[in-house]
Amino acid sequence: MAERRPLIPVIIGPTASGKTALAVALAARWPLTVISADSRQIYRGLDIGTAKPSAAQRARVPHMGIDLVEAGERYSAGRFAAAAAGWIAALPPERRPVVVGGTGFYVRALADGLFREPPMATDQRARLRRWAGAAAGLGRWAARLDPAFAGGGRQRAERTVEVALLTGRPLSWWQRHAHAEGVMRPWYIRLTLPRRLLHERIAERVRTMLAAGLVAEVRGVLARGVAPDVPGLDGVGYRQVVQHLQGRLAAQELEGAIVSATRRYAKRQETWFRHQLGGAAVRTLDAIQAPEVLAESLVRLWDERES
Length: 307
Prior knowledge:
Blueprint: E1 7-12, H1 19-26, E2 32-36, E3 43-44, H2 55-60, E4 63-64, E5 69-70, H3 77-90, E6 96-100, H4 104-112, H5 122-134, H6 138-145, H7 154-167, H8 171-177, E7 185-192, H9 195-212, H10 214-223, H11 238-245, H12 251-275, E8 282-286, H13 291-306
Parallel strand pairs: 1-6, 1-7, 2-4, 2-6, 3-5, 7-8
């Protein structure tokens, strides 16, 4: 029954809002393990552009959900939820899981569950994926096949097209009619910032990433034979660096292009978290405050819930 699912804190918010810093500060008060719900941090070797927790942070606070697959491998929200269920179940009783992330579909997969995938012929699936990997206008195809498709990147568009063509029904239909239960009950904490300050943090993060060697990181991945448009490299920041290395984006335009794309991504995240949490109660914290202050506020809210 749903009541038997564990109640787990979930820290959500747009990129650069300070989710990781809050989790690290919270670890000084609770013995916790972070379950990273970030669809970009799953890729090994893509470290700088995904703002993965530093080595020092990960040594201080155990993180699950990071460095799971190689760039180019498809990794679905359902696969993430199944893995996370195992991580959570394996934690000792004294260690608290805390979900941290900005990928809404990963969070919803944990909290609400996803549809049980219908059977799809393996050979047809492989042929369709080869076609989708090179198809232009894939988002338009997805929107025509599933009116509920709301965008969200090439991998999501591929998934929408695949399910619709191979099952005869839109992905949104399967999500409504073949639903599996989530693995936890979410206790949401959403970090918010005034737009101006969030934009300042995004700009500073992009400058830091470029100074830390983001271009060299991408160049090294491509040198290993990874295609430039695979899952992982098609994300915000990486996509712009690939364009730069291909001569399609001038060096002096790179930082601005990444900042603009990241701002748009953050806006989509904020919109998603405002409207797609299934009516669950959401507690909001002002991320202008220091991480330690936010951690104290989170613990107080949690204790008030239990009292």
